[in-house]
Every structure is written in structure tokens, then in C-alpha cells.
Amino acid sequence: MMASDGMLSLSWNNHKATFCHILSTLREKERYTDVTLACEGKFYPVHKLVLSTCSEYFENVFEHTPCKHPVVVLKDIKCADIEALLSYMYDGVVSVLQQDLARLIKAAELLQIKGLAVPDEPPLKEHNKKNAYPWSSRDDRSSPHPKRRRREETLTSTPQGSSVAPPESPHSSPQHHQESNQSWDHSKSLSQDQREDGIEQRVGDPVEPAVEFSSPKQEALHNQEPVDESLVKEEVIEGSEENEGERMDSRIEYGEGLGGGDSSTGGEEHGSKYSHQLDAKHPQPLHEAVVEALAGPSGMQGWLGTGELGGGFSMLEGYSEDGSQEVHPASTGPGTQQPHQMVGLNCDDSRLSRRRSIGKCHQCPFCSYSSDRKDHITIHIRTHTGEKPFLCPHCPYRAGTRSVLNNHIRVHTGEKPYACVLCPYRASHRHVLQFHILKHHK
DNA sequence: CAGCAGGGGGCGT
DNA sequence: CGCCCCCTGCTGG
After folding, report:
1. Which nucleotides of C are covered by protein (CB under 7 A)?
2. Both A378 and A406 in a single domain?
3. Per-residue flag: A439 CB under 7 A of strand B
4. Which domain holds residue A417?
5. Residue A418 sits in a domain of what CATH number?
6. What are the record keywords, sorted (predicted)?
7. Nearest nucleic acid nucleotide to A370, CA to C1' distance
8. Distance (Å) from CA A271 to C1' C13?
9. DSSP three-state, residue A409
10. End-to-end Cα, chain A, rounded Å
11. Are residues A411 and A363 in the same domain?
12. Backbone angles phi, psi at A300, to 5 degrees
């Protein structure tokens, strides 16, 4: 169509469809994903953009989460629902059994998924789900009902208030606070408060009373974690006893490895060994890797899981390069209404003490491993995430640490720095030399 | 033989 | 604090 002034208006006929398709494809390939949703032990690498577009809740969360690649642990929501909601958000459509509809809607309300959860309106009907196109509603995203949501619920701690309960307390009951929209509103309001009222004030948050901040560190923590302060607090509560001990600072860099995948193409020759990395062949390597990691008895299951330990899922917020946050194995009590929990990984202790060995204050969020060295935790976490930031310049091999890569590179360079003192033999690795000596010069 | 995971020392910022 | 490097124990092909 030509405009009167000679300007041409070029339209992409099926732009929306194509755009959405591409987005969906990107998710499948885990390309450019910058946030991971964790639910019932499963991990879903997705895009902040999409989540923010379809959910004001996520929008707020990300707004307060500086991390490059946060991990949002969703509690009280079934992974099936998350999958369905993701399908809805990415594809605009989702099929759901009638019997599961109520539950799905509830989850959508918790997460404030546009089109599925309409605060002021009655729960959507099925047809809504099918037709609603996330994108279509996004425009009003700001308008929807900010105020409404904003309704303050200072009552952060609900009767269940088990937030104070020990980690072991099984408040996992998924229903605890999802039951009503209010609960949703509640959480929402909290986050908004934080954002609008200022993060610092969180400390004074009503919830606070229940929480015992034993050390200044915690405050620091708060400052660092603008997001859902209430959540953090609760976490703190439970973990408070181990302020120094259980808190950990760890970071996961999903960056290249997980989301990017560009370079991840490599490793194929290494076979399945590296498949967990981001091989195109394994669209969800991260999931698998992490799930595996979680499988362990003492692993994340306890943590994220189930309520045995954590009583519901907690949010591991921000295991990212940028943001380290604290993770408290003990998730918030059921008292909280937030669909997720933010868990910080920062070990504020570090600030207080620069010494490395003051006890193992860094805990791996995925397993029972702990270390007094944050850097070691960082590396360790890569074993769970599959992240291997160090690429071999000669082959697709990727390593989790520089040292490992350097060792590997010797296979290409033929360098054999380890010489036998008893003969001309040289080995590329110390182990090899030791074996040689034992075998030939014993 | 190659790689992985964990621990420790050292260094620069 | 983060990174690098080294060492050790272990595993799998």
C-alpha cells in the first residue's frame, strides 16, 4: 500500500504467527533464554521478555531481580501447570483437561497470567484460554489493575505463619495460600510495594516481626534483594539459624552454556558425556542435568521440593553471574502467598569476613555440597547446570574450569610437562606419570 | 589415557 | 572476591 506521500507501508502478513512461532522455537532450543523456572524439580529455561509480557507478576519479579539469569522456583504449582502456562504464553494456546482447568486457572492467577487470570473478572472460561493471545493483552499491562493489586496486605504472615516453621516442616501443601485470589494479590502487592515504596523499607515490613534478623548481614541481604522482600525474609527466618552456616553464595552462569547454546554445538564427538550441555539434540539438557542433580537424596529435592524440607518450592533467585543471592534451603513457610520464593544466594558473611575458611558457609543449592570457598561453589554448581564456559580452541570440547581446559588442550598440543626422572618418558598429566613410575620403575 | 570433581595456595583487584 | 593453577582421588573407555 502506498501512502499518499509516497511512503510505502510494508506489512508482514503473518508477522504475529511467525513471531510467536519463532519465540516458541527459541524456547525449545533454549536460545537466548534468560530465566529458568524451577517447579517440582523440573527446570524450564524461558525468556524474561515473554514472561514479563504475559505476566505482570513476572514483570515485577524481573524488575527487581538484577541477575542475568535468575532461577525462579515456583512453589505450590504443579509442573504440568507451568508447562501448560508456558505453552499458553508462548503459543497463545493450551489444551487442558476439564478436570485440570481449575487448577490451571489457579496457577495462572497466582502468576497473574494475562488472559487466564483476570483479577477483576471472574475466572476465565475455557474459551478464554484458547483464544486469548498473550500479546494482545499486553498493551494494557500497565493498566490492568495496578491499583487493585496493589492493595496492601501487610499481613504478610498468614495464620499458617508457618513461615517460621523449621525447614523440615511440611507446609508444602500446595494449597496453602493459593486458594484465593487474595493470596495472589497479596504476594503481588508485596512485590509492588517493594518496587514502589522502596526496597529498604522492606525491613520494616510487617512480616518482619516474625523474622529474626540476627545479623546485619541480613539487612545487607535485603538491600541486595529488592525482590519480594517478604519472601526473602521468610527464607531468612528459617535459615536464620544458620546465618553463617547455611547461607550460601553461589552463582550460576547460565549464560553461554545454558541459554546460548551457540557454541554449545560442540561436544558431540564426546558423545553423551557432554550431551547435557546444550546440544541441539537435547533441547532440554539443562532440565535433565538439573533434574538429575536433584534426584539425589540430599539434593535439591529436599530443597526445592517438596515440602519435606522446604515445604514448598522456593525461588532460587538469581543464580546468575551478576547476582549472587542467598539461598535458604528452608523455603518460606506456607504462610506466604507468593507463588514462588526468592532465595538469595549471597553470603553476606563474606563481607564480614574475607577469610575463606570460616566454616562452610556456602551451600550448593542443588545438593548437599558445601564449601567455605565461594569460587568452589560456583564451579561446583556448574556440575549441576552443565555450564562449561571454557571452550577448547581446537575442538568442540568445553570445560567447566580453566584448569580442566588447559589439561585438555594438551591432547591437542601434545605437550607433556610431566617428565619421568628415571627415564625419558614424559606424560601429559601427572596421573599418567605416576602410573608410569609405578608400573615401570617400581 | 582423558576427564571430572573437590580441595588448597596464591595473586590481583 | 574472583580467578588461576596445582594436586589428588576417582571413573570410564
Report:
1. 1-11
2. no
3. no
4. 401-440
5. 3.30.160.60
6. Metal-binding, Nucleus, Zinc, Zinc-finger
7. B6
8. 12
9. helix
10. 87
11. no
12. -60, -20
Distance in angstroms: CA A315, C1' C9: 34
Q: Which three cell numbers stand for residue A95?
A: 489444551
Interface residues 147-186 of A with strand C (CB < 7 Å): none
State the total domains in chain A.
2
SS (H, E, C) A106-120: HHHHHHCECCCCCCC
Distance, CA of A252 to C1' of B12, in Å: 23
Determine the protein residue whose CA lies at the shortest distance from the C1' of B7.
Answer: A376
Rounded-to-integer distance, Cα A341 and Cα A338, Å:
7
Confirm if A61 and A194 have CB atoms less than 8 A apart: no
Spatial separation of the C-alpha atoms in residues A258 and A252, rounded to whole Å: 10
Cell of A425: 618418558
A 320-379: CB within 7 Å of strand B: 357, 369, 371-373, 375-376, 379
pLDDT in tens, chain A (442 residues): 444 467 777 777 777 777 777 788 888 877 788 888 877 777 788 888 888 888 888 888 787 776 777 777 787 788 888 888 888 888 887 888 888 888 888 888 888 888 877 554 443 333 343 333 333 333 333 333 333 333 333 333 333 333 333 333 333 333 333 333 333 333 333 333 333 333 333 333 333 333 333 333 333 333 333 333 333 333 332 333 333 333 333 333 333 333 333 333 333 333 333 333 333 333 333 333 333 333 333 333 333 333 333 333 333 333 333 333 333 333 333 333 344 433 333 333 333 344 444 445 777 877 878 888 888 888 888 888 888 888 888 888 888 888 888 888 877 877 777 777 777 777 777 777 777 777 777 6
Q: Residues A221, A296: one domain?
A: yes
